[in-house]
Amino acid sequence: MVLAVDIGNTNIVFGCIKDNDILFRERISTVQSATELEYATIIMAAFQLHSINCSEIDGAIISSVVPTVTSTAKKAIEKLTGVTSMVVGPGIKTGLSIMIDNPAALGSDLVVGAVAAINEYPVPQIIIDLGTATTLSVIDSKRNFTGGIIMTGMAVSSDALTKRTAQLPKIAFETPKKVVGTNTVDSMKSGIMFGTAGSIDGLIDRIEQEIGEKCTVIATGGLAGTVIPLCKKKIVLDDDLLLKGLLIIYNKNKK
Q1: Average pLDDT, integer, range 55-75
Q2: I need a surface site. Which of 53, 101, 225, 234 has the fewest CB within 10 A?
Q3: Which residues, at least 6 apart from 228, have a Cβ–Cβ distance to it below 8 Å?
Q4: Going by CATH, does the domain composed of 97-244 fall within 3.40.1260.10?
Q5: What is the pLDDT of residues 181-240, one digit of tens each?
Q6: Rounded CA separation 216/124 (Å)
């Protein structure tokens, strides 16, 4: 059984995979000050919740965009299971051809998502990840990673709006009944929810126009389930995309 962990700026997603079946997926907050014992305790609680014994874990893999948490998580997993985690980075085989100016600068989360997508969905592709940032990755018809788009994530936008204004409150990411809000909260919800959906639809149009092909569009990330249903484009929602990619990379590199 493989423990797969994706460490993002806001959340950590982890799950156990056995024979290509994802047994569970859990999401916790990324806390840079947390100790290895604290992370080990959280992972142990998830194992117990899903009736998994630590002794069943015979492999682990980590993808991380938060270097300060990577080593802590690695030590936590080793403390809990006795397994040394594989970490996605230089020297790891992914099978992905990265055709950007500096391939080494591509975030490991984008690499992992692309690896899963090209193995599961038709190309060309646009992969949308709605996390702290909203990213769109473009895969061409030859399965090459050709580039992408990075824009401010929904939570960051909402926080900035609240902090930069005197009277606008914090809001929940809920869809208002109408696009045109009749009060402050609904107007803000409309701006964040429909605004994000509209920008995604528009960017898909622009990408497809630029590359001259229709794309399979896949979305993942913590906020994908709230906003993708509001998009007018056909978009496949895959909450397990990164876990699938981590398993593929693990299998490519295990001894």
Answers
A1: 96
A2: 101
A3: 128, 130, 197, 200, 219, 235, 237
A4: no
A5: 999 999 999 999 999 999 999 999 999 999 999 999 999 998 999 999 999 999 999 999
A6: 6
User: What are the domain boundaries of the chain?
Assistant: 2-87, 97-244
CA separation for the pair 80, 109 (Å, rounded): 24
Pairing of strands 236-237, 216-220: parallel
Whether 125 and 139 have beta carbons less than 8 Å apart is answered as: yes
- Summarize pLDDT for 137-181 with one digit per residue, the tens: 999 999 999 999 999 999 999 999 999 998 899 999 999 999 999
Residue 90 has a pLDDT of: 87
Tell me phi and psi for residue 82, to 5 degrees.
80, 5
pLDDT at 255 over 80: no
Region 26-51: what's the mean pLDDT? 96
Residue 210 to residue 193: CA distance in whole angstroms: 26
Task: Determine how many CB atoms are found less than 10 A away from the CB of residue 56.
Answer: 13
Q: What's the distance, Cα to Cα, between the start and end of the chain in Å?
A: 15
Question: Using CA atoms, how far apart are residues 69 and 73, in angstroms rounded to an integer?
Answer: 6
Residue type, 146: T
The SS3 assignment for 53 reads coil
Contact yes or no for 211/142 (Cβ under 8 A) = no
Contact 130, 153 (CB under 8 A): yes
CATH number of 2-87: 3.30.420.40
Clarify whether 109 is annotated catalytic: yes
Give dist(CA 170, CA 50) in Å, integer: 34
Contact (Cβ atoms closer than 8 angstroms) between residue 18 and residue 11: no
Which residue of the set 6, 19, 101, 109 is catalytic? 109
Q: Are 248 and 226 in contact (CB under 8 A)?
A: no
